[in-house]
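Re-run with default settings, no changes from the original entry. Doing this only to confirm the output is reproducible before filing.
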Amino acid sequence: MITRTFDAATPWLLDLGTWIFGALIGFDLLMLAALLTVGPADRAVLISTAAFAVGLPPEVGAFVLLRLVRDLEATKIEEVAARSMAEAGLEHSMPAVLADSQRTAQRTAAALGVSYGLLFVSILSALTGLTATLWHMGWWIAVAFLAVVTITQPLMFAVILRSPPRAGASAGAHPAAPTDHPATEP
């Protein structure tokens, strides 16, 4: 059940992660551009600039990782390599490896795990940078921002956790999930 749920959600998680990291990269670049024109005006600007600069490499790394995993799944590179080695008569030189689907699932799970860790670092640096930028404008703006973030996050998670499952989800099949067999027509 959990494996089927993970398998059904994996393409969506890869796409969502790519969008999230792309948005964070754009946000960090815009904020850095604005902060670099201000210069080292005070400690809040320095902290903000450092936080956005530190957040950029994990965001780019996670973005590339998720795109790479998605593209490797789409091109089925392992199948192409195995077929090429077999055609060249070099199948004996290939090391024993796991089945393609198992290897792909392991690679995808590892990429998602790493990207979640990088997402935590990226969001923490973005929140630090934005809070420091708002502190530069006024301490009370930064405090209000943190208060609203502190209130809205638990509410959002409560709504997600208490949402009833979709109709048909309890059957274990995702309505939009592709099937492994072609549809037959009568």
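The chain is about 75% helix and 0% strand. The two ends are 31 Å apart (CA to CA).
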